[in-house]
Amino acid sequence: MQGLSIIISTSNHRIFNLKIPDEIINVYYVVVHQIYDREYEGELLEFMGGRKDISYVKLNYAGLSASRNFGLLKSKTKYAYIMDDDVDFNIDTIKKLVEIMDYKNIDIATCKFKLEDGSWPKKYSDIEFNHNIFTSSKVSSIEICVNVESVRNYKVLFDENFGLGSKYPSGEEYVFLTDCIKKKMSVSYIPVVTGIHPVIRSGDDFFSSKEKIIAKRKMIKRIFDRYGFIFIIAFWLKKFGHVFKEGDIVLFTRYILFGR
């Protein structure tokens, strides 16, 4: 199997909740730790346990996309899986995913995960397919495995304006995938389950604050460029009923359509 890195983004005390499996040949871990409190620094050596398969990167500023990018830059393997610190991931199925990517020359693969209660977070296809600019909108960041050599050759990274801790606190995975698609990279969905995530997910809430709504607007404009406003209206129409029931439709309408 080609070498695999698991890039895990974490912050402050959350690093001590990581569940990193025992050492496996050709599997490495890049832990990107965004730390704002010096009290954690003295405990890190004990946490690492002297393992040579774990690389530690400390950042003293926020931004999930910045964390992902540092992880990709530090990866020394051909493949890297994007991971959060609250996911119970399955190395065997991730290795299977990488084997398929390598055999089929796939640059970026997306997959699926389950929730702790045994349910699915969304409806997944049972068959493999190539992503386009629309299907990639449904992908979560923890469903992404990349050919590191390819993203470096094509000079694609996560846009650090998007993602938790950034100017626009969502949308980084969609922007990343569509950037890859626009550069004619091979971006495919493979129906492999790679992990289990807690039932509560931050991506479900896109309308409870003006910052979250504006992030969606900026994401759509970033992806669709001159056609952006057409797709902003389409998004507003699609989500109108849901927000009307669950949130503030006036707030949503104001900031998604007008941005202010």
Which properties best describe this structure?
Spore Coat Polysaccharide Biosynthesis Protein SpsA, Chain A; nine-stranded mixed beta sheet; globular; 35% helix; 8 helices; 2 domains; 260 residues; alpha/beta
Please describe the topology of this protein:
Elements: E1 4-11, E2 27-34, H1 44-48, E3 54-59, H2 64-74, E4 79-84, E5 88-89, H3 91-104, E6 108-115, E7 129-130, E8 144-147, H4 148-153, H5 172-182, E9 187-197, H6 210-224, H7 228-246, H8 249-257
Parallel strand pairs: 1-2, 1-4, 2-3, 6-9
Antiparallel strand pairs: 4-8, 5-9, 6-8, 7-9
Helix pairs in contact: 6-7, 6-8, 7-8
Classified by CATH, the class of the largest domain is Alpha Beta
Averaged pLDDT: 91
Q: Report how far the terminal alpha carbons are from each other.
A: 51 Å
- At CATH level 2, the architecture of the largest domain is Alpha-Beta Complex
Q: How many separate structural domains?
A: 2
Count of helical stretches? 8
Under CATH, the homologous superfamily of the largest domain reads Spore Coat Polysaccharide Biosynthesis Protein SpsA, Chain A
Strand content: 15-25%
Outline, from the CA principal axes? globular
Structural class: alpha/beta
Give the low-confidence spans.
none
Into which percent range does the helicity of residues fall?
Answer: 25-40%
Protein name: Glycosyl transferase family 2
Pfam families: Glycos_transf_2 (PF00535)
Organism: Marinobacterium mangrovicola
InterPro entries: Glyco_trans_2-like, Nucleotide-diphossugar_trans
